[in-house]
Amino acid sequence: MAAQVEIEDQASVTNLDNGEIFDSLSDDADSSSSSFSKTDSLILLGEGNPEHDVIKTCLLSGMGVVSSDTTIVTIRKNSSEGITTRAKFLSFRIFTDAVARKHGGDANVKYGWYAGSKDEIQSIISYGFSNRDVGKFENDGCSHGIGIHLVPSKCSLLAASATEPDEEGLRYLLLCRLILGKPELIISGSKQSYPSSAEFDSGVDDLHNPRNYVIWSCNMNSFILPSYIVSFRSPRLRVSRGGFAARPSSPWVSFAALMSMLSKSMDPSRMNLIIRTYDDFRKRKIRRDQLVRKMREVAGDNLLAEIIKNHRDKNKIKN
Predict the structure, then answer these.
(1) What is the spatial distance between Cα 57 and Cα 10, in angstroms, rounded to a whole number?
(2) How far from 204 is each of 188, 191, 314, CA to CA, in Å?
(3) Of 43, 132, 142, 148, which sees the most CB atoms within 10 A?
(4) InterPro entries from the entry (predicted)?
């Protein structure tokens, strides 16, 4: 198994973007269409582009036993073109300098993965993080404070396990630049939502080997710079409870596929209730765990288990 790669150790990215991704657009950037709506701030990076190759290596090296079945589809860079996006980049630089002065010259800037759907990530790129993104995993039993939770760049499997494949089997991760400053230890299950004192700037689950970064909501659009969007396929990756600690398994059932199969087994009134709930989830009005609870409540565990088992059996026959 390949060793995990930390993006901070890869000079090809940090030298290109000076740690803040302020470089001019890559010569081989491709503006061809993708599943994301076209925006002046997104640049498609092609194979052979140094940034593309470092990010690809980093993601795959952290995917563990499912790395061989994981395929990177696209990597898009959030450039500093345009008035609004340029302002966001400059703001991040100003806060980086401020935190560095506070801590003797080191702002402790890192890369971290954020897991979300295509629509969620598109919204973050366009408008920034919102209160709906705060405490996204606070009910999963692994919460380390209430804020924006991200995963260190070398721990890509943890982030990928929180993604949900869309109708085409694509999953999405947002690679962000983070200002950690001086982090404080946040114990599991904590409901802390801001620094315990002016000494600290962020939170981590482990001071020496963190697997969870927490940026407090008061700093979520100042200390986080969305930098790259990665779309990928990983058929053997399954989503575990709360989105972490996944293990490879037979093909997982996406919500979209499950909805299609449920519609064949449920009466219209109950199905419409599930459809409305799923629509709220896609619009980020509710969290994933709330959608799951509603589906179990309306459809029942026995029907859901039977549908998932039949789906897996069919995939085993195909394979």
Answers:
(1) 10
(2) 10, 13, 42
(3) 148
(4) Poly(ADP-ribose)pol_cat_dom (IPR012317), RCD1/SRO1-5 (IPR044964), RST (IPR022003)
